[in-house]
Fold this protein.
Amino acid sequence: MMSKNNSSGVVLTGPLQCPVPSRKNDVVLLGHGSGGKLTSELVRNVFLPAFSNPALDHLGDSAELIVEAKRIVFTTDSFVVSPWRFPGGDVGDLAVNGTINDLAVSGACPVALSAAFILEEGFSIADLRAIVESMRAAAARARVPIVTADTKVVERGKGDGVFITTSGVGVLPEGVDLAPEGIKPGDAIIVSGPLGDHGIAVMSAREGLEFETTVESDTAPLHELVATMLATGAEIRCMRDVTRGGLATVLNEIANAASVRVLLSEPDLPVRDAVRAACEILGLDPLYVACEGRLVAIVNADDAPSLLGAMRSHPLGSDALQVGTVVCRSEARVLVRTAFGTTRMVDALPGALLPRIC
Amino acid sequence: MMSKNNSSGVVLTGPLQCPVPSRKNDVVLLGHGSGGKLTSELVRNVFLPAFSNPALDHLGDSAELIVEAKRIVFTTDSFVVSPWRFPGGDVGDLAVNGTINDLAVSGACPVALSAAFILEEGFSIADLRAIVESMRAAAARARVPIVTADTKVVERGKGDGVFITTSGVGVLPEGVDLAPEGIKPGDAIIVSGPLGDHGIAVMSAREGLEFETTVESDTAPLHELVATMLATGAEIRCMRDVTRGGLATVLNEIANAASVRVLLSEPDLPVRDAVRAACEILGLDPLYVACEGRLVAIVNADDAPSLLGAMRSHPLGSDALQVGTVVCRSEARVLVRTAFGTTRMVDALPGALLPRIC
């Protein structure tokens, strides 16, 4: 520490005695993660203008929220998608929507998000601004504020541009109790829209592939669609967002939790032509390709028609349809009946089909 | 997808048709982040045995909590400390204690934590187990469960072993309203114990330095100390944990928020001899070196003696003492009166004094 004392013993000069080191404004520096002045500048120049809200603005180490329910839901996800920008989205809106969706499929109304950034030294501040703007827009679209945040910086070569971890808090309305244990034979399996768009969008950006039509990520917040679904009063047993591992993996997890056999109808599976074509080129099964704005719901079959009607009235559920049924209680198993009338078993994703897809 | 159909059209073989690829069990693989079987194995073999609790055990994408208060507090922090193990702790207990402390200094009782792991391909599973065990022990010590989690894996060279982001939810007891705006001239500034142990412990591990005595990190959960403090009824204006940027930076932030001038007494600042010696060797001012288990409180001076008495009755506050006072309303400023009677101004940390200290 430099200090300048005068005879009275009290330093009268201002903060200039500890000058902020001259710096390039265009890239992330290690000092941006030090917790001192550079961190504060980054917060005030980049994060605060985008995310501003009463809970965040006081810039404490935490945020206070008022919750109007006793049951809250809490979730977290890190987002390390590579590349960070892809057709239809980027790591920013993905991080907002992904955590909202984890709350949504539990039946909760999202209340607030946190965001923790791990930046690599040298990452472009302009790119960081673009990501933050994308988070702002996603949070505004979903009407869920980002109320608390953190920034760390690691040395060049010790990270990969930007990783974002979002956590979310939601409130569970009274009477909402979704759990796979409630699944019964005969229940309908409904998906809210086409499968695999997100995974193929990221793969096309990563591999520099061009298909006849651009496949855009389906990244979107599902809580309003879920609210529409719950409002129908349909007996929804459980819901999941169809992310890493795709529909096959998610249904295997549900089948395991409920100890049931599930049968999908392959001709009914909604997969866009462009996604199907890309999957053929890449050697992928669309059943394993991630979405980031689709959900699967298991519902009393009697309620399926009215539920589908309600879902189709919502822009994010306009292509909703039933893709299968719960067959019987049994050792957990997910089967697919093909267009040829044969049936194959689909297991959970075994290995690393698509690394860093979210 | 491989599939094996028989004449009935139904596959009767078990999951072996999609074999888990043979793998080395000793390091993290990209597939551990795929969301499929390897992720599930990692969760069931490493995370679940350590963190098991009713909210986590159902392994959903979120956790349900019952909260007995309307005001909740929400916080998040990423932990990228390098090296991940240091005298007195590791990234695991740091991640648990750090987020508990952000809740604690708001006056909240911590309810639950989330943990999101970003692992580098090739990271040792044995080391991961050690970190997870350390998190388990820290969560058990603090009696705050880890209720929801996430794991991502990035390619070798795109991360640095392990980064952990924890978020926390706490409840604010009625009547607790800590905010720097309540600070008044004459208030006492109290710290709960010696400064700089954590930063020096990490630096010594990083640089391979040996001092006459080993300096151990002070990483610890402060919520019980805070509860003891609040129970005294002392007029506590605000509290902060003394982390990145050290006491100087934290007090500058408080002084800014309250628009006050603060005067510290240098001879009263508690700094262990070994920390002071290390700081001299490393050219550091202990006022800027991070702690991870110390807090600073601003309190009505009349209540300071009884508050200090209560703090000293708690193991984490046994060395608590008053180190300064709030002098007057003014442009925000933190001054230190030295042993020689001179006074110097200390600013917030300007740059990157100690990168990746937490």
Q: What stands out?
A: The first strand of chain A starts at residue 63 and ends at 66. The longest helix of chain A spans residues 125-142. Chain A touches chain B through 107 residues (CB under 8 Å). Confidence is low (pLDDT under 50) at residues 1-23 of chain A.
